[in-house]
Write a structure and sequence with these properties.
The complex is a heterodimer of chains A (158) and B (503).
Chain A: E1 4-8, H1 13-24, H2 26-39, H3 44-72, E2 74-77, E3 81-86, E4 91-97, E5 101-107, H4 110-115, E6 117-124, E7 131-138, H5 139-157
Antiparallel strand pairs in A: 1-2, 2-3, 3-4, 5-6, 6-7
Chain B: E1 12-13, H1 18-40, H2 49-67, E2 70-73, E3 77-82, E4 88-93, E5 99-104, H3 106-111, E6 113-119, E7 128-134, H4 135-159, E8 178-179, H5 182-192, H6 196-206, H7 210-225, H8 232-263, E9 267-271, E10 274-279, E11 284-290, E12 294-302, H9 303-307, E13 311-317, E14 331-336, H10 338-348, E15 360-361, H11 366-388, H12 400-413, E16 415-418, E17 422-427, E18 431-438, E19 444-449, H13 451-456, E20 458-464, E21 476-481, H14 482-498
Antiparallel strand pairs in B: 1-2, 2-3, 3-4, 5-6, 5-11, 6-7, 8-9, 9-10, 10-11, 12-13, 12-18, 13-14, 15-16, 16-17, 17-18, 19-20, 20-21
Helix pairs in contact in B: 1-2, 5-8, 7-8, 11-12
Classes of the chains: A alpha+beta (158), B alpha+beta (503).
Chain lengths: 158, 503
């Protein structure tokens, strides 16, 4: 039975989340522009500067949260099962025993594929934890982990 | 799939009276809302033809449904084929069947038939609803399932050493585990106020009509007309008081009636490791649940329960069937004397001995943390009220001993217990509840630390089970001291991975 101590997520995952954060925080620029240009009647270049700084501010704020989140995230595999440590303000340790795994999915998005990343989704028979997602694994790690969890589980239930 | 199925046995059909029952079911779902809007809408529809059209369509539909509904009792599975446009063929192995519910209302009794609902572990709908078949067919199906279940149990007991094999005949077997008396059913009705929502809805709808509104106002006026020398305010107050009293009595009486309709003659038996419950006054419902399917046991004693000196025991099972999609059986004992709780639970689950549990308290600081939390919740509300409405609301701050006392009482009541078979958590001041989960039913274990927890070196532990209701009381133990918590977490982790989860 393979085990490993707590380890962080794949390094490539942090740039990936930061990129995604930079992309979606554009939504903050839109209301900032609308408010300053149409409602407050500022000239267009001022409005553009305000909108861009709103975007920058949110991207930096959420980006630093992402960094903290990435730093806090670790997981390990013990003889009992998968342990996941995560959360910035509300920290939690999830313990997922090997023999409670029902099935496992690996999903890879287009941006993740470029960086060779995958997400491992472990399904259990539980309610709130019907699926537990392990983000930011390298594709090989995800495949290994899935193999390991499924193999040991089968051995146990026969 | 329908091509590959070759029946080995003779196809069985529904009872000839079933179009009637299917029709009634369709009427319940479709026409009741329409009729309601018709009578209460005030203005009238241009014609009643809609009703006739729906009635005709529904009756044709029911006959078609009846005509194309077949089922087979194969050696190892039940196969149900239905539908003409949307054909469905469903095969359910007997050993996958978790629950067989039987419904018999007075109309069923007239035709000597019953509605059967078959449930498996998955899905939010029953696997099959067989509406309706005669008593002999019901017995056939039950027999087939019982037979398969018996085989399954013998194989399960050899492979699973955690559950002691109950080869010795249980002395309780055959004798009901629980029989609710008329008094207990009445008590249930008294404290559950089930009629409140429906009566309020009916009243609200009735008041939509102006004619009824006037009649009601006159009726209220008439009550105090005889009494002279009253000022307007006095008579108004008396009016409202009389109305409130009448409403209360009405709700109470209807609740009792509803309780009797639902639970009259509630009987719980154990056969072959399955719980068998029977209940109902006019509509008799029979439900069967394998004991190993119980994921969580919940024992409640609210303030009202304590008034009548009773507890209640309910359970969570893993199936996803809700009250909207079928019959749900969640009661082990709707009303039971406190002294019988522990013996009954132990008869059902031999490893759960509530009387021997060693309850452990939460952190000593739990009451203080809860008090701070409540204050953080209440003080802003008071502040907003006193600023926006009237400064006198500020005096409400003087009521802090009330929530202080609540926090103290809560912390005193909240306890957890843990041993080799189970983990249990009890909490609540007004609604005192105990949740019990067996180790082998635990799916995942969470250890949570909020920023406030970290400052106090506390943490929270919760466990996830199958089919749990998030809104209801469950195993979620807050304000635990960190070292104790980590120890508990490791122990649980170890225990859970040593036991196998059986559906």
């Amino acid at each position: 039975m393979k085990t490993f101590p707590f380890r962080p997520l794949a390094d490539a995952y942090l740039p990936h989340t930061l990129l995604i954060t930079r992309l979606w925080t554009v939504v903050f620029a839109v209301p900032a522009f609308v408010l300053s240009f149409f409602a407050a009647d500022l000239p267009w270049y001022h409005a553009t500067i305000i909108a861009l700084s709103a975007w920058l501010l949110m991207a930096v704020l959420i980006g630093s949260y992402n960094k903290a989140w990435f730093k806090r995230y670790s997981f390990s595999l013990t003889t009992e099962g998968l342990l996941i440590n995560r959360g910035v303000f509300w920290r939690q340790m999830i313990c997922l025993p090997r023999n409670r795994v029902q099935h496992i999915d690996i999903t890879t998005g287009p941006l993740e594929r470029k960086r060779g990343l995958s997400q491992l989704i472990v399904h259990t028979a539980g309610t709130r934890d019907a699926s537990v997602t392990l983000h930011g694994l390298t594709a090989e790690d995800a495949a290994d982990l899935r193999h390991e969890l499924i193999i040991t589980n089968q051995g146990d239930s026969v | 799939m329908s091509e590959t199925f070759e029946p080995q046995t003779e196809a069985k059909r529904l009872h000839p009276s079933s179009p009637l029952f299917i029709f009634i079911e369709a009427v319940k779902k479709l026409i009741v809302p329409l009729v309601g809007s018709y009578f209460l809408g005030g203005s009238h529809y241009s014609g009643e033809w809609i009703f006739y059209a729906i009635a005709i369509l529904a009756s044709v539909g029911t006959i078609i449904q009846y005509w194309f509904y077949h089922y087979w009792l194969e050696e190892d599975r039940i196969v149900v084929k239905s539908g003409i446009l949307f054909k469905s063929l469903r095969q359910v192995p007997y050993e996958r069947i978790q629950n067989v519910n039987i419904e018999k209302n007075p109309l069923h009794k007239l035709f000597k038939v019953a509605t059967l609902q078959i449930e498996s572990a998955s899905g939010s709908k029953p696997e099959a609803i067989i509406r309706v078949i005669n008593g002999q067919q019901v017995a056939e199906i039950q027999n087939a399932i019982k037979h398969a279940g018996g085989q399954l149990n013998t194989t399960a007991s050899t492979s699973n050493e955690n559950e002691p094999a109950k080869d010795i005949v249980n002395p309780q077997e055959g004798k009901p585990l629980l029989h609710m008396s008329v008094g207990d059913v009445t008590r249930y009705g008294c404290i559950h106020w089930q009629a409140l929502v429906p009566l309020a809805a009916i009243f609200g709808l009735a008041m939509q009509s102006e004619k009824l509104q006037h009649q009601f106002a006159n009726f209220l006026l008439g009550l105090v007309m005889q009494v002279k020398n009253l000022t307007l305010i006095e008579s108004k107050v008396i009016n409202y008081m009389i109305f409130a009293l009448m409403a209360m009595v009405a709700v109470w009486l209807v609740s009792m009636l509803m309780a009797h309709l639902k639970f009259h003659g509630f009987k719980l038996e154990e056969h072959n490791k399955k719980l068998h419950a029977e209940m109902g006054l006019l509509t008799r419902i029979t439900a069967n649940i394998p004991i190993k399917r119980i994921q969580l046991l919940r024992i409640r004693s609210s303030v009202l329960h304590r008034l009548v000196n009773r507890h209640s025991i309910s359970m969570e099972t893993a199936g996803g069937v809700t009250a909207q999609t079928g019959i749900v059986m969640r009661w082990i004992a709707p009303m039971i004397e406190p002294k019988h709780v522990s013996p009954l639970v132990q008869t059902i689950e031999p490893n759960i001995d509530l009387s021997q549990l060693k309850w452990q308290a939460l952190s000593d600081k739990a009451w203080w943390r809860l008090f701070k939390k409540l204050s953080a919740l209440i003080i802003p509300i008071i502040a907003i009220l006193s600023v926006t409405l009237s400064k006198t609301f500020g005096l409400a701050l003087l009521a802090f001993p009330i929530w202080l006392a609540y926090a103290k009482a809560w912390a005193k009541n909240a306890q957890f217990a843990h041993n080799q078979h189970l983990i249990a958590y009890r909490s609540g001041v007004f609604f005192h509840t105990i949740s019990v989960v067996k180790i082998n039913k635990i799916q995942t274990i969470h250890l949570v630390e909020s920023p406030f927890d970290r400052r106090n070196h506390h943490g929270q532990l919760w466990v996830d089970t199958a089919g749990s209701h998030i809104a209801l009381h469950h195993i979620s133990i807050p304000y635990l001291e960190k070292p104790e918590l980590i120890q508990l977490h490791q122990k649980l982790n170890q225990q859970v991975s040593d036991t196998r989860f059986v559906w």
